[in-house]
Amino acid sequence: MSRRLASLALAAALFATAGCSRDDPSGKGGPGERAGRQVDRALDKAGQAVEKAVRDMQGASKGQDTSKESK
After folding, report:
1. How far, in Å, CA of 61 to CA of 53, rounded?
2. What's the rounded Cα separation, in Å, for the pair 69 and 27?
3. 3-state per-residue secondary structure call for the chain
4. How far apart are alpha carbons 36 and 32 in whole angstroms?
5. pLDDT tens digits, the chain, 71 residues: what are they?
6. Distance CA 30, CA 23 (A)
7. The pTM is what?
8. Which of 20, 39, 38, 40 lies closest to 30 in space, CA to CA?
């Protein structure tokens, strides 16, 4: 089973690098590179949301109201 999973991961990595290596005359990159940038942006937004939730929870545990409505 683990050999099968390793083979699948290797195949996925090969397909991903093939999509990124495609040259685009506009300089914006290939489809894989553009998709990677979109994933990076989404993960950045998700990370910011998690950080805010942590700050809110820390404030709530200290008895502080960190919501924007109360300010």
Report:
1. 12
2. 44
3. CHHHHHHHHHHHHHHHHHHHCCCCCCCCCCHHHHHHHHHHHHHHHHHHHHHHHHHHHHHHHCCCCCCHHHC
4. 6
5. 577 778 878 777 777 666 555 555 677 788 888 899 999 999 999 999 999 999 999 888 888 765 665 54
6. 6
7. 0.49
8. 20
Structure tokens at 62: 């200290």
CB 32 within 8 A of CB 22: yes
Give the whole-angstrom CA distance, residue 66 versus residue 55. Answer: 8
Tokens read off for 39: 């994933």
Angstrom CA distances, 65 to 48, 53, 62, stand at 19, 12, 9
- Torsion angle in degrees (nearest 10) through CA of 5, 11, 16, 19: -160
